[in-house]
Amino acid sequence: MSRPCNALWVSLAALLLSGCGGDDFADIKAYMAEVNAKPKGHIEPIPRFQAYEPFTYQASNLRSPFQPPIRVDVASKPKGSRLIKPDPNRVKQFLEGFNIEEFEMVGTLANQSGRFALIKGAGGVHRIRVGDYLGQNDGKVTAITDTEVDVVELVPDGEGGWIERPRSIPLKEHS
């Protein structure tokens, strides 16, 4: 390269760099003045936290949200009977404190005193026979076969009467 070309480049670079200069720090100086104007040693107080309020679940006796709702046609809805009702003086059995849907039949036993079904649920395996009660709707065991336990529950019809609802607990076969 020749000297005039070098001089041209140097002068061009000097001209460009001269545009970067100047005393345009007014915004930074204003911010620094604002920070310095604040009182020293002032710390904002800690925010007050609200105390924890415990929540008690009140919907435990309602239908599970994971089961489809039961469609009831008002015209074909069975009417309950006022003659059929649970015995309020009967002593409740242990398995009546649990939802009947939690139980599954796992086997049967038979001896001289009769036939028994083995029901798994409520924290263990329980032996039941015809006439025993289980579930929260006064479910009475009416029959025990090799493949299922038949139960009749008493459920309110919503109009002051009671309906007998048959149910069965099928044998769960382990694979």
What does this structure look like?
With 175 residues, the chain is of the alpha+beta class. It has helices at 3-18, 26-37; strands at residues 104-111, 114-121, 124-128, 133-134, 139-144, 148-156, 162-170. The strands form 2 sheets. Strands 4-5-6-7 form a 4-stranded antiparallel beta sheet, with no helix packed on it. Strands 1-2-3 form a 3-stranded antiparallel beta sheet, with no helix packed on it. Strand 6 and strand 7 form a beta hairpin. It is elongated and about 120 Å long. The chain starts with a helix and ends in a 5-residue tail after the last strand. The mean pLDDT is 82.
Summarize the structure.
The chain contains two helices and seven strands, in the order ααβββββββ. The protein has helices spanning 3-18, 26-37; strands spanning 104-111, 114-121, 124-128, 133-134, 139-144, 148-156, 162-170.
SSE run: HHEEEEEEE
Low-confidence stretches: none
Q: What is the CA-CA span between the terminal residues?
A: 90 Å
Class by alpha and beta content: alpha+beta
> Quick one: overall form?
elongated
Main attributes of the structure:
Pilus assembly protein PilP; 175 residues; alpha+beta; 3-stranded antiparallel sheet; 4-stranded antiparallel sheet; PilP; signal; 27% strand
